[in-house]
Amino acid sequence: MSSSPFGRKSHEESNLSHSDSEDEPKLPLNQFYPYIRCALCCGFLIDATTITECLHTFCKSCIVKHFFYSNRCPTCSIVVHQTQPHYNIRPDRQLQDIVYKMIPFLEESEREKMCKFYKERGLEVPKPVVISPPGPVVLRRQKKDSIPQSVFTIPPELDVSLLLDFVGAEEGVCNYKPLERRYVRVSGEATIRHVELFIRRKMELSPTCQVDVVCGDHLLDHYQSLKDIQNSAGEDALQDGLLVLHFGLVLPSQS
């Protein structure tokens, strides 16, 4: 008796599915090491923390210790912040979840180490954060006497507000992005060299392109600090409390 064509087809599909699963490529874990390991301790990322200026990621404890003696990224050496690099780091929970899924028992091991650390010191073990679903929004009228408190306060170190005004590029200068962040608050100890590096990074300028920065009628030197420029220029260089710096892109002079 001949077999049913439906039964034969089902058997063939089963073999095909099994063959597809075997042909699926499997990559060794070490190929992902550059993305899931910390460049400082060379271990797998724990409390993954990313630098917002360059998007390089490290263990939180590693990068915090690194900032005790340096304000630059350990990978690309970019200045994270002139005085307070901790302001420009953020937790990367999605990447941390990926690391925990790729490395078996890593999360449990870190949890056990943390519990042991707190118990040895007689401290209460922190409970894991549970994110509850958002409830209905209830609008309440504020009392007239209540004054809303500011959630964000500007650090006192950032005492100079800049307005970066792009005046144009010399003919022959091309392939640059527009400067999206024209308003910047920085430390008065920063120099024109720092401003130039900021412009170069944000506009993705070629190394051969030269950035000329002008305040009023004066072409500024790299070593001049923003605080000195603001004090010497006076009110003429300010616009609504902002220090106005004009900058243009030129080709290097031929000597």
UniProtKB/TrEMBL annotation:
One of its GO terms (biological process) is negative regulation of DNA-templated transcription. It is found in: Nucleus. One of its GO terms (cellular component) is PcG protein complex. It holds the Pfam family zf-C3HC4_2. The keyword Zinc-finger applies. Residues 1-24 are annotated as: Disordered. The keyword Phosphoprotein applies. Residues 38-77 form the RING-type domain. Its main location: nucleus. Keywords: Coiled coil, Isopeptide bond, Metal-binding, Nucleus, Phosphoprotein, Repressor, Transcription, Transcription regulation, Ubl conjugation, Zinc, Zinc-finger. Component of a PRC1-like complex. Interacts with BMI1/PCGF4, RING1 and RNF2. Interacts with KDM5D. Interacts with CBX4, CBX6, CBX7 and CBX8. Transcriptional repressor. May modulate the levels of histone H3K4Me3 by activating KDM5D histone demethylase. Component of a Polycomb group (PcG) multiprotein PRC1-like complex, a complex class required to maintain the transcriptionally repressive state of many genes, including Hox genes, throughout development. PcG PRC1 complex acts via chromatin remodeling and modification of histones; it mediates monoubiquitination of histone H2A 'Lys-119', rendering chromatin heritably changed in its expressibility. Within the PRC1-like complex, regulates RNF2 ubiquitin ligase activity. This is Polycomb group RING finger protein 6. It comes from Stegastes partitus. The lineage of its organism: Eukaryota, Metazoa, Chordata, Craniata, Vertebrata.
